[in-house]
Each structure stands twice: as C-alpha cells, then as structure tokens.
Amino acid sequence: MISLDDMSVFAAVVDHAGFTAAARVLEISTPVVSKRVSALEAELGARLLNRTTRRLSLTEAGRVFYQHCRRVVNEARAAEASVAHLQDEPRGLLRVTAPVSVGSTELTRALVGFMRNYPEVEVELDLSDRRVDLADEGFDLSIRLTREPPEQLSARLLTNTQRVVCAAPEYWDKYGRPREPGELKDHSCIVYFPNNDFNLWYFDDGAGLQSVSVQGSFKANNATAMVEAAQGGLGVVMLSSVLVGPAIAAGRLEPVLESYSSPSAGIYALYLPNRYLPTKARVFIDYLVDWYQEDMVSSI
Questions:
Q1: Cα separation of 81 and 88, whole Å?
Q2: What does the pLDDT average to over 158-164?
Q3: What is the longest distance spanned by two Cα atoms in the chain?
Q4: 265 or 275: which carries more pLDDT confidence?
Q5: Domain of life here (predicted)?
Q6: Which of 89, 164, 135 is CA-nearest to residue 273?
C-alpha cells in the first residue's frame, strides 16, 4: 500500500514546483525527496513527473494522482488536528459507570460542577452494581468503592473511607446498643448478598483484627436499599461512611462501636491501562480528586 508520507512528499513537490523547494519545506534533503518520488513511481508503475533541467511538469497520471494525494493529505492533517484538539481541551462524550449508591448522590453532584466547568463534554452515566467490562461496553471510567482495585485495570484513589456500624435510634432504643462487636450476633443485621463474605464484619481494637459473623432477616444487593432499610428500623448496617454519613448527620442513623476501627476501603477511578487516556477522562479524574478533597475539608 502506498505510504501517506510518500504521498505527502509528492504533493509538496507539485505544490512548490520542485524537489529543492519541497525538501526545504519538508526539512529533508533534496536527494531523499527525489528518491521518494522515484520509489512512488515504481510502486505505481507510472511516470508522475516530466523532468527536465529547467522545470518539472505533471504527466496525465501525475495530475490524476496529485488530486487524490492532495485530498488524502488534507484529510490526514485534519484528522490529526481534530485529535490534537480533543487532547488539548476536554470535549466529546464521557461514558462513566458507577454503583447506584455512589453514582446517584455524590458522583452526580460532582458531575454537575464538572460539566459547568467543561461545557464541551457530554456525559453518559450508567448506574449499576454489576461488574462492568470497560473495553467490551465502551466505558471511559468506572467509579468503584473497594478495598482492592482489580489488577487488570489502572486505578487512581479518589478518597479513603471507613466502614461504620449504625442503625436507626429507634432500633437501638428497642434492642440495646452493643458495647463490643461480638454482641452484634444478637442483632438483626442488614447484609449484602449474594456474596456471603459480607456476612463477616471485621473490627480492630488495636490488639488485633477480629471477625463477627452476622445475620438478619433483610438482605439486599444495593447499598442504597440497605441504608433505607436501616433508617426504617429493620436492623444494623455496616457500610462506608460515604454512604451512611448524610443519614448520620441528619440523625436518621446512629453509629456505635466507634472505638473500634474497620478495614478501610477507597473510592477509585478505574480505567483501561492505556497511556493515551483521553483528556476528558484524565481531567475528570483530576476534578474528582480535588472535589473529594474539598468535600472532606468542608465536612470537618
């Protein structure tokens, strides 16, 4: 297949009426220009230029080929400029996936500010608690709350978060507040399913990590539903402070066992390990890091 570089050299020779002038514009030597044109003629099996000691002129084949060359070279330059423009300023469609609990609240609030700052960006936000394949489904980013980001994806930490044990004040008034983690076995706990690992709640009192196996009458595969159930008095939840913080601040949930810590998790931006991360995605990640930092400071 004919090289775009060779087409560009030939077009420059015609545009500037000579090998020497074309070489000057292209910043290569005149012999290289002449050699590239000769190789192009050999590949096409046709003479493109009539060469004399005084001037160059196009053959019939050369005139036809030049018209195509000029169009192809112009299109290539336009495509390059378009991509460079996209890389320079965030614009275009940004596809983001996130769990319902995070995406429907704080992530949406962050997106409002981001889109005000970058009006050339369009956003498609997919809220789902299922595992999403970024490549197959065409997403730029996945926002996930996890202790360990998947190894096959690049990850950037947006903020750390602690898990909090809490329930509605009315629930505690009725069933009593636990003084140590083991007492949670006697409570109705709201757990995530279908993963049974979430039935084990971990605590650290400074002397070591202990686990408590909990159970209850209400299970859900969505953290927002779990928070709502806890606020309604159905039982005890252990969820990220990001998820239960607003309800605690409003007095709808009351934390317990605050002298114990739990393994921390993080909210991460996950993306395909590609060094050419689109500007729109890179700038949005930077924006989220700053947004979470400001949110933490304002809540102190």
A1: 10
A2: 88
A3: 105
A4: 265
A5: Bacteria
A6: 135
